[in-house]
Amino acid sequence: MTTESIQDLASRLATMPGLDALRAMTALPERPPFIGTLLGMDVEELEFGRAVFSLATRPDFANPLGTLHGGICATLLDSAMGCAVHSTLEAGVGFGTLELKVNYIRSVPTSGHRLIATGTTIHVGRRTATAEGRVADDEGRLIAHGTTTCLLHR
Length: 154
Description:
Blueprint: H1 3-13, H2 18-27, H3 35-39, E1 42-47, E2 50-56, H4 70-86, E3 94-104, E4 114-124, E5 128-137, E6 142-153
Antiparallel strand pairs: 1-2, 2-4, 3-6, 4-5, 5-6
């Protein structure tokens, strides 16, 4: 996508409620650039107040010890929790992450294990919103969990 087409798309999406905008973006044949493309993220579910993302681990996601770098789970959580918040917003309202807290429970190999992040809103107010999230592996084991606070741009 060109910069101009991305700006046009952003203008159109800004006229839609958050959940509709998220669903419209995921339905595009050519999605705008986002971190999920770089990491191979898939959008599994988008509902009001809930978002689910997944990805498969790979060797280039390794930390110096050879296991999954914590930033991968943090990015999955930031995406899932942020989109959970976004799904509740009215047209023309944006947000930004103010705070992200992640607790890591276990290490993960980088050999193609599927990770699933689920984000759900806790509170959506006038100026801020909070959400919580969990990352589990393909066997349902908890890998990480976290919370976020988002600043709403009204």
